[in-house]
């Protein structure tokens, strides 16, 4: 390749261009990895839940698994960023630095090659000039010899002319000899420089170019390997992320989720009892006079009650709207089961706080003992205010725990006694045998119905009740409040636990019963909050 300097120049330039082309490829791959990681993180951020109160944290295994998968995906995005960073530092950055060094080295070697070629060309020109001068002097010497021989053979030529021609010949011959020696010296010098150029200088430059090109090839090979190693290094961590996703998927427990739904919405209320038998045939056995007066009264009452309940349905449904008032300290505004859970959670939190205060008290006592034994370390009296405050906090927490435990015992006792109370109430709702009389008493024989006297709360003038719409509705029974009810909603009646109320309208299937206090205040109360006893043998109070 001694004569292929120009081709080697083009080849080395192609090598550098290819190196930069691969560096551009790596740069674009890094941008892809960075954008991919950024999009993954945005995706995770979009679907990750916002910070919420402790009570609203996801508890279902399917939700927890999904959030774990999001966390693993976020870690996976981090590994893509690691890949991009490793490629940028180990591959792209190294390629750009090496490309700059390669260009500098190639430029230096090519300059050395051009200088050597220029020097050889200069030597060749000097040799060629001496050769041409030698050739010219030889021709002049030949001409001088021919002129001398012609004059020497010419008899008419004078001796002076012959002598002059001889001197001219000697001069030309001498100059030709000098040019010959100079040409020989220049030729020898050029041959030596040419030999040195093609066998020493140029091979050395080409060897340096070859080594440079081989180093470029090796660097590309290392970068190819580094490109793959950047990906291979994170494969174990990526595998762990994928394994974490699989474990999250396996952690989904449908039975546990169903149990959480039950625990979340379980109220602790007993299901409603059976509907009582309503004997519409009682009107057949009424007297004409009694039926004339009473029948319109009952129909008017029925229409009025339906209208009232239908108006109240939209705004009085027990769990349809939250009460307007604030949550009570003892959670009495919640259903029994949910109240029990809230109280138990509060007791657990108070116990944890009490344990912290106890640990702090023990630490302060130990520090006080150390100060008493070693006064130089500190004043024992300086710890007394903190110790007093800690003791006060402990007493306060114990009182809170005792108070909440009392409420919890009360709730658990009520839930346990609920079934017994419902049993006594269901007896008054079920009619398995016999018939109801028009006045509420029943017998096994339909022909032995007896009209009972009205209750002591009956209105003295029943005839006037039919025409006075403002008179209160008659009581059809009484009830006892099992749980307190605030009655914040419009149309509801507040009641205290254990309070006795009159029932003036039964539950029509919407979960509400119309009741009245002794002072005449009326309203709707939740049927599940009261223990109802209907008085079938009374027309009302």
Automatic annotation (TrEMBL):
Coiled-coil blocks: 124-168, 340-374
Bias-annotated ranges (Acidic residues): 463-472
Compositional bias annotation for Basic and acidic residues: 416-426
Residue intervals of the F-BAR domain: 1-257
UniProt keyword annotation of Coiled coil present: yes
Protein family: Belongs to the FNBP1 family.
Protein name stated in the entry: Formin-binding protein 1-like
Species annotation: Mesitornis unicolor
């Amino acid at each position: 390749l001694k004569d292929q300097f120009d081709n080697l120049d083009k080849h080395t330039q192609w090598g550098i261009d290819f190196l930069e082309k691969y560096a551009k490829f790596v740069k674009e791959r890094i941008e892809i990895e960075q954008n991919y990681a950024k999009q993954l993180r945005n995706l995770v951020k979009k679907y990750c839940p916002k910070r919420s109160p402790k009570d609203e944290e996801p508890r279902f295994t399917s939700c927890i698994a999904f959030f774990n998968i999001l966390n693993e995906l976020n870690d996976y995005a981090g590994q893509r960023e690691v890949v991009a960073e490793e490629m940028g530092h180990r591959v792209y950055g190294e390629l750009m630095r090496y490309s700059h060094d390669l260009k500098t080295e190639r430029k230096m070697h090519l300059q050395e090659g051009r200088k050597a070629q220029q020097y050889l060309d200069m030597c060749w020109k000097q040799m060629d000039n001496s050769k041409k001068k030698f050739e010219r002097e030889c021709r002049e010497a030949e001409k001088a010899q021919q002129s001398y021989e012609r004059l020497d053979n010419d008899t008419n030529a004078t001796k002076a002319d012959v002598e002059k021609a001889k001197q001219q010949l000697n001069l030309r011959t001498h100059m030709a000899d000098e040019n010959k020696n100079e040409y020989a010296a220049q030729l020898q010098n050029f041959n030596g420089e040419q030999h040195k150029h093609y066998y020493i200088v140029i091979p050395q430059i080409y060897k340096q170019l070859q080594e440079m090109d081989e180093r470029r090839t090796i660097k590309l090979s290392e970068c190819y390997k580094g490109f793959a190693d950047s990906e291979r290094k994170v494969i174990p961590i990526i595998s762990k992320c994928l394994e974490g996703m699989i474990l999250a998927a396996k952690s989904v427990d449908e039975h546990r989720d169903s149990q959480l739904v039950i625990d979340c919405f379980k109220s602790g209320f007993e299901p409603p009892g059976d509907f009582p038998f309503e004997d519409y045939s009682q009107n057949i056995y009424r007297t004409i006079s009694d039926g004339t007066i009473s029948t319109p009264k009952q129909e008017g009452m029925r229409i009025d009650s339906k209208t009232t309940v239908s108006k109240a349905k939209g705004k009085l449904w027990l769990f349809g709207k939250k009460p307007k008032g604030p949550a009570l300290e003892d959670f009495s505004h919640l259903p029994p089961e949910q109240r029990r859970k809230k109280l138990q959670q509060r007791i657990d939190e108070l116990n944890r706080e009490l344990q912290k205060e106890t640990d702090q008290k023990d630490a302060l006592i130990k520090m006080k003992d150390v100060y008493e034994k070693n006064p130089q370390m500190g004043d024992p009296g300086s710890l007394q205010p903190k110790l007093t405050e800690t003791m006060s906090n402990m007493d306060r927490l114990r009182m809170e725990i005792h108070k909440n435990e009392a409420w919890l015992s009360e709730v658990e006792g009520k839930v346990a006694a609920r079934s017994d109370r419902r049993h006594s109430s269901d007896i008054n709702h079920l009619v398995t045998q016999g018939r109801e009389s028009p006045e509420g008493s029943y017998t096994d024989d339909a022909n032995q119905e007896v009209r009972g006297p009205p209750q002591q709360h009956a209105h003295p003038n029943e005839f006037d009740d039919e025409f006075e719409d403002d008179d209160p509705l008659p009581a059809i029974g009484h009830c006892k409040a099992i749980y307190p009810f605030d009655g914040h909603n419009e149309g509801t009646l507040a009641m205290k636990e254990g309070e006795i109320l009159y029932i003036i309208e039964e539950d029509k299937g919407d979960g509400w019963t119309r009741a009245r206090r002794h002072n005449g205040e009326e309203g709707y109360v939740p049927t599940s909050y009261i223990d109802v006893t209907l008085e079938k043998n009374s027309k009302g109070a």
